[in-house]
Amino acid sequence: MAKLAKRTATARTAFEGKSNLSVEDAVKLVKDNASAKFDETVEIALNLGVDPRHADQMVRGVVTLPNGTGKTVRVAVFARGAKADEATAAGADIVGAEDLMETIQSGKIEFDRCIATPDMMPLVGRLGKILGPRNLMPNPKVGTVTMDVKAAVEAAKGGEVQFKAEKAGVVHAGVGKASFGAEQLAQNIRAFVDAVNRAKPTGAKGTYMKKVSISSTMGPGVSLDLSSAVAAQ
What we know:
Layout: H1 2-15, H2 23-32, E1 41-48, E2 60-64, E3 75-78, H3 81-90, E4 94-96, H4 98-105, E5 113-116, H5 121-124, H6 128-131, H7 149-157, E6 160-164, E7 170-177, H8 182-198, E8 209-216, E9 221-223, H9 226-229
Parallel strand pairs: 3-4, 3-5
Antiparallel strand pairs: 1-7, 1-8, 2-6, 8-9
Helix pairs in contact: 2-8, 3-7
């Protein structure tokens, strides 16, 4: 425990007094202080000027990060017949229909992304109270309700990230690993910020993007200079 406290104190000292950094400087700071024994995820959090309780202020979307996430994504697909075979061939980890529904209802959720063909949605709809709160419910707006199962599975496996504003108007996601190169992380960060920027809802009033911060799994956060974060638009 003492070792953990020492590492935390060292990181806090390194971050002290630093804010509104360029993407490159922030990435360097986070990478230099990601000292856990595992490959920490680099996480981004955006504080938006929206109230997601209002439908016209909900922010959600999907972005394919140019350098992937570094994470192995487990994909479940609701499909039958030829589409089920297509999902399996594309690399889906779990494929099924009623059997998959029953597995989920029993509390066994061993996947990170859920995809469904449109004809399966009446079945999947019964799982709304289970999948919805976990942000796993298939949705045509983010390409997870589709007949092109192959493309959806490959996108999920290849670095596609879904995002959705939480109650306080915060959007967060993993944008890579601490082991990534600095330029790879910078590209991913700018791609994610750009996607959230383009997802600005019609009901948003005032300042839309208030604050953007990055951190590693075990490290402190540092805020980014907004002009640097959106410079790649």
